[in-house]
Design goal:
By secondary structure, the protein is mainly alpha-helical. Helices cover about 70% and strands about 0% of the residues.
Length: about 90
């Protein structure tokens, strides 16, 4: 599926080929599931659902934010600080 296209990094010799293929299969299943959800509920509703499920609520609270702050698309000082911390891990 994806492994023949994307390949396997030479430095991944410590990881078994089977585990890499298993990860690729799970990735493809998740990708198909995501596509299906987008088709079923529309892109904007789907993205809203995903954002709500994935936002670290404890971190939002720590920075004085809530879901409504995120969806209002207003950039505040609290939002900037929240994003600085979260983009450090990307």
């Amino acid at each position: 599926m994806t492994v023949p296209v994307t390949g396997i990094a030479p430095e991944s010799s410590s990881v078994s080929v089977q585990s890499i293929y298993n990860a690729a299969v799970h990735f493809c299943i998740a990708n198909q599931f995501t596509d299906t959800l987008i088709e079923m509920c529309g892109k904007s509703k789907f993205l809203s659902l995903i954002y709500l499920l994935m936002l670290p609520q404890d971190e939002l609270e720590r920075f004085g934010l809530c879901d409504e702050d995120v969806f209002s698309i207003k950039v505040t000082d609290n939002w900037r600080e929240f994003m600085k911390i979260n983009f450090m891990f990307v």
